[in-house]
Amino acid sequence: MKFEAAENSLEGVGDDGSAVSIPFTEILALTSNVILTIPEGSESSLRVYSYKALDVTDEIKKYYLNELPPYLDPRSANVTVINSANAGARTGEAVYTSLLRPLFKELGVVHEYILTESKSSIQSFAGSLVPESGPHTIVILSGDTSIHELINSLRPISEATDLTILPIPTGSGNALMTSLDLGSPTSAMFSMLHGSVRPLRPFYGSFPPGSKEVIPPTDDEPDGLTRIFALVVVSWAIHAALVGDSDSPEYRKLGNDRFKIAAKENLERGAAWHGKLSYVSSSGGKLEPVELEDLEHSYVLTTSISSLEPGFKIAPTAKPLSGSLELVRLPFSSGEEIMRVLMLAYQDGAHVGEPGVLYTEIESLRVEMGDSEERMRRWCVDGRIVIVPLGATVEVHSGVENVRGWNVYIVA
Ligand SMILES: Nc1ncnc2c1ncn2[C@@H]1O[C@H](COP(=O)(O)OP(=O)(O)OP(=O)(O)O)[C@@H](O)[C@H]1O
């Protein structure tokens, strides 16, 4: 076929005179002899058009793939596709077979495919990666938890090695990819081919010895602390409580309403969380810790992204992938008042302007636990619950350059 670029589409004419029109919005990539598209409206499967003639004009330059990016090129990376079978509505298999596999076949991306068989599949795979086999690329069809498990299961290495993660969002939340405007499999695949490689720079929580986790702990740090890397959230007080409660079998039966119901019950309880809280702000170059006199808290949350769920802008000025970290803290007050303030997050993050709300970019946060009741000592790290010992101190630190020696990148 011969194609020409029109204003918003590629117009093609076959040797037999047949015509075809491809809107730019459906193009995934152009190579020197094919046009790869994902037609809208159909059951999302890759369509390939061969062509003999096409002028690569300015309008279509951004779709052109001269050569494979190094992280997909079999000569420079080991590519593995992991499909986290339990993620979201379990669409990973369909996305792989109708989009990703044919795309990789067309482009010559040699890869291994792993369909997870259990809760520990991702952990075992990540733990098996070694620097000796060179740079790795992991395309992961999943939500946030699977990516969290992947980076937290990397084993420590002494020789810095590149690991590029290409998430294709198929989970129920996908907060990380949504925050990067790559919340659909199609947009993620476009970015995989044409995006820029950027350090992932996860932040982390540091948990003292004796902390109990729902998922077995990853490697302990030499100082006895357990460092858990986070991509989305590290929180304490009401946020951790509602995530923890909603994970129980009786709440799970309630489906997605379980978060709302758990939030309501925690707010109605009207309890304060006690602890000595200090933070190091990263604005103004002042690295002295600021200690709050107020020891009673309702909401303490750190995040590197702006919205934990669509529309809920808890940290409106967050800059994903920059390594920066935002703290949101509400003092103890009535359940109704906490609810009123938090609901303002749905109004473009208006809660941060409310009196009493502490919202600041931080280098680190430190909390000494002051509650005897175990349920008040729960922390949430990307949805995973960690219960810390009485009187323990928990720290949260802003984004790091590497994860246990691995230079972890994402393409966005
Ligand atoms: N075959 C399997 N059996 C049991 N658990 C699995 C299996 N495959 C994957 N898992 C686990 O299921 C979870 C899937 O989480 P993931 O984040 O990918 O999706 P999600 O929870 O739907 O999305 P989000 O975290 O964005 O809301 C992970 O903990 C993963 O280890």
From TrEMBL:
Domain of life of the source: Eukaryota
Transmembrane segments: none
Matches recorded under Pfam families: DAGK_cat (PF00781)
Domain called DAGKc: residue spans: 74-209
InterPro entries for the chain: ATP-NAD_kinase_N, Diacylglycerol_kinase_cat_dom, Lipid_Phosphate_FormReg, NAD/diacylglycerol_kinase_sf
Protein name (Swiss-Prot/TrEMBL): ATP-NAD kinase-like domain-containing protein
Organism: Myxozyma melibiosi
